[in-house]
Design a protein that fits this description.
Elements lengths: L1 H39 L2 H9 L1 H22 L3 H36 L11 H23 L2 H9 L1 H21 L4 H33 L8
Helix pairs in contact: 1-2, 1-3, 1-4, 1-5, 2-4, 3-4, 4-8, 5-6, 5-7, 5-8, 6-8, 7-8
Length: 225
């Protein structure tokens, strides 16, 4: 009987994990598309990012409901309970990351509706670096989640420093541009908002890393203080 209960619990855990990873994959696509829309001021692609947010929300709620059902029916203890609670926290962070990607997409649509082109005639390598870094962080975090790898989770959290440095570089660059040419203020402000969304994505992935460590060790503490 105990073996059957364990087998059922493992199957339910696997379904939750599979759906959580599906959310992660959809979120990665959203980040990629939002940046491509920004780069080309592509309102149609930006609208697709916004439209695709609803399925992410639906799948997030399914994961949460499945976790609550598992708690109610299986009454997991100790490490199993931490695993369930971590899944709830992680899928919530993933859905909020998708909201940040949607925020970038909404900025693209706002600028496009004004008949303006998004990118300034100044280097924006910092923004591109941030986008690449957060996508790599997300992939590494999800890999660490599957493997329950504490050291990999800590490495993910440490990588957030690169995103913070890139955001500061972007901020400084655009501030200089606005000071030099006041006609760029509106565009630069939009780009700063996009950079802020990417910086927040890095913070949320750090939160995911914290939950992975909690799930694996039972220790919950804030990283990157």
């Amino acid at each position: 009987m105990a073996g059957q209960m364990r087998s059922l619990l493992d199957r339910e855990f696997n379904e939750i994990q599979d759906n959580l990873l599906r959310v992660g994959s959809l979120v990665d696509v959203a980040i990629d598309r939002s940046l491509r829309a920004l780069r080309g001021c592509d309102a149609a692609l930006a609208q697709q990012v916004i439209n695709d947010d609803a399925p992410i929300n639906d799948l997030r709620f399914k994961v949460e409901e499945d976790c609550l059902t598992l708690i109610a029916t299986q009454q997991p203890m100790a490490g199993d309970l931490r695993r369930v609670m971590a899944a709830v926290s992680i899928v919530t962070e993933l859905e909020r990351i998708a909201d940040h990607a949607t925020g970038i997409a909404k900025t693209v649509i706002r600028v496009s509706a004004q008949g303006q082109y998004m990118l300034l005639e100044v280097p924006t390598e910092a923004l591109e670096r941030m986008a690449l870094a957060v996508r790599e962080m997300l992939k590494s975090a999800l890999d660490a989640y599957v493997a329950r790898n504490v050291e990999a989770a800590r490495y993910v959290a440490a990588a957030d420093d690169e995103i913070d440095h890139a955001y500061k570089a972007l901020f400084d660059e655009l501030l200089r541009t606005m000071a030099t040419d006041s006609s760029t203020i509106a565009h630069a402000t939009y780009l700063l908002w996009c950079g802020h969304n990417l910086e927040r994505i890095g913070d949320r992935i750090t939160n995911i890393a914290e939950r992975i460590i909690f799930m694996t060790t039972g220790t919950l503490r804030e990283l990157n203080l």
